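User: structure tokens for this one?
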Amino acid sequence: MNQTRARVMAGEPFAICNGDEFEEIFIAMDIPVLAINYWNFLIGAKEQGPHYTKVLNDRGYVGEHFFGWGLASTMSPENAPWGGLPKPSLICGSVRSEMELRVTELWAREFGCPCYPLDFSFPSPPFQALPEDWWNYTRNEWDKLVDPARLRLRVQQERTLTNYVEQLTGRNLSVTELVRSMDLLNRQMDYWANARTLIGSAPKCPVHIRDQMSMYQAMWHRGTEVGLDLVRDYYQEVEGRVKNGIGAYKQEKFRLYYHSQIPPWHDYIEEKYGAVTVANFYSGIPDLYARTVRDNDPFEALAARHLFLFGFNAARIVKEAVEHRCDAVIVIEAFNEGYPSIEQSQVEAAGIPYLALPREADDAQIRSLLENFIEQRLLKQR
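Assistant:
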């Protein structure tokens, strides 16, 4: 951020945008770009979330405001990481939700810069039914995951925004550079996928789930040489640990897939039962971002990814659990006795024990549910 600040102070452009919306275009134009979610997570890591929630509450925006922390950090920059953000040339928002678009509008007003909204993004459901194994289509057959009319509209919108950025900043987009950036991203995903395969097949899980999650930070450098180096180094370290028989956990008796981020109760069940998380929702990242550019035109491939990024279905959970040789799957969902969810039905049909937890917390009730599940479903099978 210090380098970015120095570049901005010297008169160079700088942009802020929603995650997974438009970063590749800015990167290809050599415009430093900050993804909003990255900044908000950084504020959380600095334990400034409560402070900035209060800043927003005091301004009349009542409630919990993770997405609005960046806006609040501009309202009160003295406590922000690196002293706050420099003034951007523009903020790129989207109608991913009305709240997010409103935050970017208010943030741009606070900075005194333009806010450019994109019409829709990857949460928009497609009109046609998706293949259950959608992850096998994302890279090379991405046109089968998006509606043609929406894709044409999205491409037009992104070209229009690119023209606006060119006029605003005086920078020109090189299509060759954008193709190169997307190729770098594909190579990043290849290294990440190879590391995932090693984690899944190794006798001992070589990488703690916390360290696996930390690699997601490389996605804020996607499509760059820096991002490629980060993921390549990660793969090489995983490869070395597997070759040397190094495990990440003191005792590994049961392997778990957790359909969220990092379990707050993880250390407890590892110490008591040797139950360790070897995969989670983010283990599927290598299937999500890579897109093959056709006919040397990157706009369609990039727009297709903007329209379809995450697929939420039970088949994906089963895929990750099987590939990581998991003994059980744990999902946060409401439990209805006698009426299992689609996820539970498909996971158990695959022969994998399934536990539904009512919330993501570490308290007496959650620990009791975990203990009963492990003792009744896992220990008795050994």
